Amino acid sequence: MHLLKRMFLLLWLIILSLMLGSTFALAQEKGYPNLLKTKELVITRGYSKDALKCIECHAKKTPGIVESWRESRMAHAGVSCYDCHAVPKSSPMASQCEGVKGTKIFTSPMVSPKTCSKCHPKEVEQFSKSGHAKLASAPVVEKAKFKKLMYDLEGGKFAGVPENSKLRLAARQSGCQMCHGTEVKLNADKKPTDDSWPAGIGTRYPDGGIGNCVVCHNRHSFKISEARKPEACAKCHIGPDHPNIEIYYESNHGQLFLTEGEEWRWDSAPDTWEPGDYKAPTCAVCHMSGIGELATTHNVNERLKWDLVHPKSVVRSGERGDGEKGRQLMRKVCSNCHSSVHSNSHFAKLDRAVDLYNFYYDGASKMLAELKAKNLLKEDKWKDAFQELNYYLWHHTGRRARHGAAMAGPDYAHWHGFFQIFQIYKDMQDIFDYRIKNNKIEELSPVMSTGPY
User: Fold this and answer.
1) Which residues pair with 204 in a beta bridge?
2) Distance between alpha carbon 418 and the CA centroid of its chain, in Å?
3) What is the enclosing helix (H) or strand (E) of 86?
């Protein structure tokens, strides 16, 4: 009986082998089916019907946008165009694109921080308290002296550009608003005017939201790795008045980034991106990222002691932060890679540089006040040598010296900073002495352009 079972099993295996062999031979003879030609890729999960319509339509009309989004973590998390761009009909920004005309769906090409806060409330709250939000756009939106600069001077009114000409907006739109942001104005169709959007980091939206997350997290990929690299800051923190990216590149931190940065890990989760993923800090590490015992913050003021931007450096307070606490927090950042001896030396150097700059600024301010009291200043400060030099003292050379000291960039602290500060100061002394001695203002300004500074 046992022998019969074994013979039966052997016979069955022979028959099965012959069947498979003939099937394989048939497939080889006819060729394997091309699944790519017959497979229809349809997304039927995760997204609503309306969201899918947006994706499918924009995949044809704006494929670059959809491609960036498709590779993003937003897409991985199931966040679609509809989630960010659909707005209530009652929204001041509610409009309808061609694909939703006649439906109950309203959208906006603009996405304000109020939308981002639906998923990132903590990040938006921190950001709104920083110098990147309302404070950033205040010069463009609120300050009368900046409006005069943007529209009357740079906009050419003084040279004859008509009052109602849009040429007067060009300097603001191409320069100031692209970094600082501005107030978005709407056309009759509730879409932004062509002179107020897009704008920079402090953009003020019609729905009340202030800020622009995509300045650092470029749409529509929103890569955290991009925001962590110094180039994310370089669009605005560059140039003669605040050359932060140039200072960073010449620092030891920047040298390591430039030579080894391509090998570093940039996409670790928030609060887990630590030394080891990188060998030297970027702007994000020092000012925003979670490191050691510090949590990630989107308030770039939190870890700063001094206000190094305005005419006189003071310890930050009020809406600009808590300077004393900021120094303690920055020390904790440094402690991840440096000894306390090293950190103490760095901050002592910075404090001395700030005190020296303030000494020059106080002296210049004293001369300025005396000239004003004696009516020895021109009404137009851009034709007044003393006032022009006073501007370059703090706004260009003074910032470079202070930022160079803060970020360990010796060339900017010295040659582009204090070396030029003392020369400007000496010129101001000469002009001051001439006006006091002669009780008159020299006819022509010897300051011919911003070039030398």
Assistant:
1) 183, 210
2) 28
3) strand 86-87
**Mean pLDDT per 10-residue run, the chain (453 residues)?**
52 54 46 50 72 93 95 93 96 94 95 96 97 98 97 97 97 98 97 97 98 96 96 96 97 98 96 96 98 97 98 97 98 98 98 98 98 97 93 96 98 97 96 97 75 52
The secondary structure of 11-33 as a DSSP string is HHHHHHHHHHHHHHHHHHHH---
Are 439 and 376 in contact by the 8 Å Cβ rule? The answer is yes
For residues 167 and 156, is the Cβ–Cβ distance under 8 A? yes
- Between helix 385-392 and helix 419-438 the angle, nearest 10°, is 160
pLDDT of residue 45: 65
- DSSP letter for each residue of 99-166: GGTTSS-EE-S---HHHHTTT-HHHHHHHHTSTTTHHHHHHHHT-HHHHIIIIIITT-GGGT--TT-G
Interior/surface letters 109-136, b for 16+ CB within 10 angstroms, e for the rest: ebbbbbbbbeeeeebbebbbbbbbbbbb
The contacts of residue 19 (CB under 8 Å, 6+ apart) are none
3-state secondary structure of 319: helix
According to the model, what pLDDT value does residue 443 have? 84
CB atoms within 10 A of CB 143: 12
What sign does the CA torsion over 433, 434, 440, 441 have?
A: negative
Under DSSP, the state recorded for 296 is P
5 CB burial (10 A radius; 0-12, 13-18, 19+): exposed
* Separation of alpha carbons 284 and 333, rounded Å: 11
Question: What local confidence, expressed as pLDDT, does residue 46 receive?
Answer: 75
User: CA-to-CA distance for 53 and 32, rounded, in angstroms?
Assistant: 34
What's the pLDDT score for residue 448?
62
Angle, CA of 234, 305 and 278, to the nearest 5°: 45
CA 61 to CA 334: how far, in whole Å?
A: 48
